[in-house]
């Protein structure tokens, strides 16, 4: 249990709760959920430019990272097509992947097919079911893809000023504005309470909030004097109690709760808001293809990691369909902005390509 690990090393509840958020992030778990300690390890085991456990902002926003990868691929001769939805994987008579078919009917032939879509989309929607073992399909269907995350993007006309560290008169960003700010994280009990509410189909009344202001480091993201605020919030169930829909009313009601919480820490925040974009778990699934809204393509629990990701006997990026590979977050080692799954899958695919 994460709670036990933190209790062994720390005494301060705010510190323990702040560290615990990296074990809760993107996961429908609490500090008292068995196995939650691994998710914390997953988030701190990496490094950034030689600094262990460090995170960073991407200059120009996260889309700039995708553009950098695209430019690197194009420089090596890759052809990239966007807004071209895939209908299904094209199979030969021998059951081997031979390319893909687009929704407009266009066939793209290839000796190898790599998918960084989720295992659910790759194998339950794009691959003919008769070509897959029944136990494999069942495993993919039964995977835990629950997500507690509602992402809220906010545009503000001034920098938030927190009671704990008020802004200076010049309104320039202070060191804490350039970091991840954790709210409603005074104790692990608060995190567990927020989790419990979501398990009963109710959005947390005092949600866990990770607040980042990327424009404090990258001014080009917003007009002069204005800022963009990224809110990563939990816990919101994908399915609300009593069959209530995640409609505009429900979205805004939850966002109002989040904004009220921020207001308590930073008076004047609500008055500074000039726009907001609310993405609940169903929205994240619909827009980005994340199963259940899960940012990791599936829970990072020990029963869904290592040799069991996405299914036992298929953790080596190969699939039951020869020539079809999984290279996204649903493959080992799981989610996070690190590219490990894609790098490993490419190596396996290249190794197989030598024998075609």
Automatic annotation (TrEMBL):
Keyword Flavoprotein: yes
Domain of life: Eukaryota
Keyword check for Flavoprotein: yes
Matching Gene3D superfamilies: FAD/NAD(P)-binding domain (3.50.50.60)
Pfam families the UniProt entry points to: Amino_oxidase
Residue span, Amine oxidase domain: 38-164
Subcellular location: Mitochondrion matrix
Membrane-spanning segments: none
This protein's GO CC annotations: mitochondrial matrix
GO molecular function: oxidoreductase activity
UniProt keyword annotations, A-Z: FAD, Flavoprotein
Record's function text: Probable oxidoreductase that may play a role as regulator of mitochondrial function.
Family: Belongs to the carotenoid/retinoid oxidoreductase family.
Assembly: Interacts with COX5B; this interaction may contribute to localize PYROXD2 to the inner face of the inner mitochondrial membrane.
UniProt-recorded name of the protein: Pyridine nucleotide-disulfide oxidoreductase domain-containing protein 2
Lineage: Eukaryota, Metazoa, Chordata, Craniata, Vertebrata
